[in-house]
Design a protein that fits this description.
Length: 256
């Protein structure tokens, strides 16, 4: 069981702060690293005398924050507008098109007399910012385990039961707040029949039972315990994150 927690009322999940948040790359961090990666890549291509391709941003384009739907849908306006669907989703991204010369320079290794190192400009750019844009495995593990392990906590299970009873009173049969968005009826490209009604009732029941407040409190408590058990690992993660951001700023500062 998670340690004792103080449960607050939570209705807005957009920018909740969790213990693991300090060890994950924020959207601002990702944009900084992505910009520096692009600059380093372009420099490398220029050095080889080849026009760089138009590479897509490495920053995720999904229009939700890290915690916005961590505990299911919680925004009544979004529920009423598009149910469980992402109303601003851009859809599929175009495929990257590269000439043979660009592909060689981007990925390497040396061929046809062109002095391209193994890993190419892609590897050079990643090295310039101290790694790719992914988060450390240990931080990702805590991030995932906190929210899922919390679902087994008696306090969260009790909150789920209250939410489920509220949903049943509206004619909906779901056990946990993660069930409605995964309902097969609602997984098409647009809101399915009845989806918006379910989503609106879902958010109202979350507010009525404060299921998100309980879930968030236990999730955070579990994360604190897990991070504390691996304090040295997470100290290293924090130092590595700071170093990567410093490298990225240095790349951008060196721009002509």
């Amino acid at each position: 069981m998670a340690p004792a927690v103080t449960v607050a009322v939570v209705t807005d999940t957009t920018d909740l702060t969790l213990p693991v948040t300090a060890y994950l790359l924020s959207e601002e961090d990702l944009r900084l690293l992505d910009e520096a990666h692009t600059v380093a890549l372009e420099r490398c291509f220029e050095r080889h005398g080849v026009a760089p391709p138009e590479l897509p941003s490495l920053v995720p384009s999904v229009p939700v924050t890290h915690t916005e739907r961590r505990y299911g849908l919680a925004d009544p306006e979004l529920a009423a507008a598009s149910g469980y669907h992402l109303g601003d989703d851009d859809g599929e991204k175009p495929e990257l098109e590269l000439s043979a010369e660009q592909e060689l320079v981007l990925f390497g290794p040396a061929e046809d007399g062109m002095p391209v190192a193994d890993g190419g400009c892609s590897g050079e750019a990643v090295g310039a910012v101290g790694g790719d844009l992914g988060n450390p495995e240990a931080a990702q593990r805590v991030d995932v385990r906190g929210v899922t392990l919390a679902m087994k906590d008696p306090r969260v299970r009790e909150a789920f039961a209250a939410w489920s009873a509220c949903m049943a009173a509206h004619g909906h049969d779901y056990a946990t707040p993660w069930d409605p968005p995964n309902d097969p009826r609602f997984t098409g490209p647009s809101p399915g029949p009845g989806e918006i009604d379910v989503a609106v009732d879902d958010v109202a029941c979350k507010e009525q039972t404060n299921v998100v407040g309980v879930w968030y409190a236990v999730d955070a408590a579990l994360q604190t315990v897990m991070i504390g058990r691996d304090a040295d690992v997470f100290a290293g993660i924090a130092a590595e994150r700071a170093d990567r951001l410093d490298r990225a700023r240095a790349v951008l500062a060196a721009r002509p």
